[in-house]
């Protein structure tokens, strides 16, 4: 290595390592793609994904984009949720401008009325209200509601799995309820944070298996964003589980004890992150990292809370310099970066070809390897891990939590 000269210029005689002639960075498209027909897109379509917060689905149609597909979401007058291809099968205007009625959504252009399952109930311009309307079907996807969210299944009908159940979320104690958050970019519970995160879903998901950034980004670089307990560098063990990846991060405490932080992810895009204030006990919720398209995603978080803990379990406190992320100036985002800056700083897709993975990235590599393996299984006609077709299958046990010993 050459020494830098002790003045204000760089060593202009050093010819090594310069940016000139650098090859353009490439993203690993096998991991990034989400569209129908792509290997990853088909794999992801084997699972139920949250598409909206239940309470936000009403008789006013809502535009939804998921897995690269534009859709329209609404709740009909009977309370049923519909998720339809937006362009009306008659002459293609958007059902976003439709009117929701008791039995479905009526297109604004010529009034065709569609049920939540796409069946056409009325064609008012046609003789007799449409004599062949029974054969018409607006493309649709099935939905169901759970934990305060609307989930959709966008894959092959014959492979439609049961909704997964997570043991720690299934029952609510007295006074508990599900708190739902879709403020994806910048921080949980930041009412003004946009729901759309301008980077690929995998950047956010694999980040969960990166416990070292908790010490740097969240504990020292930007001050303490989560808890002072995370200031010390952990010792980490990762392992595969039946349904994903888990880590144990051990930290010595001043009193001679140990804080063990266990964090786990479930294929393809679900996390159970323990409380970030380091308080003892099992993770109180789940998070989903849902692709909008190859360059954008959103997150849905569900936590079991009480009146006392609502809004506080993850990043309930203002994140940086006493402010919520959405209140930060550009300069403050440089000074107090968080996950939003670190992940979108990678680009809307990471330049994988430029990465230099090290020992501490083992969890990220394991997530990517497992995903690629699952994608291959689906291509070969197998079912991926994490899906079940048995309505009586036992709920998935979640080990995530902060534990003191
Ligand atoms: S375009 Fe929808 S009814 Fe004609
Ligand atoms: Fe983080």
What is the number of independent domains?
2
* Parts with pLDDT < 50 across at least 5 consecutive residues: none
What overall form do the CA principal axes indicate? globular
Approximately what portion of the residues adopt beta-strand conformation? 15-25%
Q: What are the key terms here?
A:
four-stranded antiparallel sheet, Naphthalene 1,2-dioxygenase Alpha Subunit, Chain A, domain 1, alpha+beta, Rieske Iron-sulfur Protein, binds fe (ii) ion, 2 domains, binds FE2/S2 (inorganic) cluster, 405 residues
Architecture overview:
- The mean pLDDT is 94.
- A hairpin with a 4-residue loop joins strand 5 (99-100) and strand 6 (105-106).
- The chain has two domains: 55-144, Rieske Iron-sulfur Protein (3-layer Sandwich); 162-404, Alpha-Beta Complex (Naphthalene 1,2-dioxygenase Alpha Subunit, Chain A, domain 1).
- The strands form four sheets. Strands 12, 13, 14, 15, 16, 17, 18, 19 and 20 form a nine-stranded antiparallel β-sheet that branches.
- The longest helix has 18 residues, at 362-379.
- It has 405 residues and is an alpha+beta fold.
- It contains seven helices and 20 strands.
- The chain has helices spanning 29-32, 39-44, 201-207, 212-220, 330-335, 339-344, 362-379, and strands spanning 48-53, 62-66, 69-75, 81-84, 99-100, 105-106, 113-114, 120-122, 140-141, 143-146, 149-153, 177-181, 235-240, 244-252, 258-266, 270-272, 281-282, 285-293, 296-305, 401-404.
- Residues 88, 90-93, 107, 109-112 line the site of FE2/S2 (inorganic) cluster.
- This is Rieske 2Fe-2S domain-containing protein.
- Keywords: 2Fe-2S, Iron, Iron-sulfur, Metal-binding, Oxidoreductase.
- Residues 48-152 form the Rieske domain.
